[in-house]
Amino acid sequence: MFKRLISIVVFPAIALLASAAWADEYTDTINIFKKAGESGAFFKTAYGYAVFPTIGKGGAGIGGGFGKGRVYAKGKHVGDTSMAQLTVGFQLGGQAYSEIIFFEDERSFKEFTSGNFEFGADASAVAITAGASAKAGSTGASAGASATKHAATTAGEYHKGMATFTVAKGGLMYEAAIGGQKFKYMPR
User: Fold this and answer.
1) Average of pLDDT values for 118-124?
2) For residues 71 and 84, what is the distance between their CA atoms, to the nearest angstrom?
3) Which domain holds residue 167?
4) Which pairs count as long-range contacts for 10-18, CB under 8 Å and 24+ apart, including other chains?
5) Crossing angle of helices 2-34/38-45, nearest 10°?
C-alpha cells in the first residue's frame, strides 16, 4: 500500500518538478539572448525563433554535435526541433553552447518548419563569448564582444531571412573545419 501511495503521489510530483526545470532552461536561454545587445532587438521584429539551450559538440578530425530546442512564432511555443551537426577539418576537443535562430518573416519561418531544414557550410553565426570574437563565412563577417555571458554584446544581421547567434557555455575546442547543421521540426 505504501509503495502504491508513493507511486501515485511522489512520481508525478518529481515529473512536474522536472518539467518545470526543463521549461526554465528555455526561459533562461531566451533571457540571455534578450540581454545580449543587438540580438535582444531581434525579439521585437522577428516573426519567430528557434532556441537551443545546450548544443554539445566535439571532434578529432571529424566532429559532430547535437541539441534539442523549441520553436516560437510570434512569442508562442509552436513546436520542437532537434539539430545535428557534422564537421570535417582540423578540430580537437569538445564544447557546449546555446544557439538561437531568428526568422525574419513568415516565409523563412515556414522554410525552417517545413520538416527537415539544413544550414550549409556557408551559414555563419555571431558568437557571444566571454571575450572578443569574430567569425567570417561566405555569407559575410560578424563579431561580438562581452565580459561575461550575462553582459554580452552582439552585432548581426539577417541572411536569407535568418540570423543566428551562439553563446559558449563551456569546454575547449580548436577548430578550423567546415560543415553544416541539419534541423528536424516537430509541430506541437
Assistant:
1) 65
2) 16
3) 2-187
4) none
5) 110
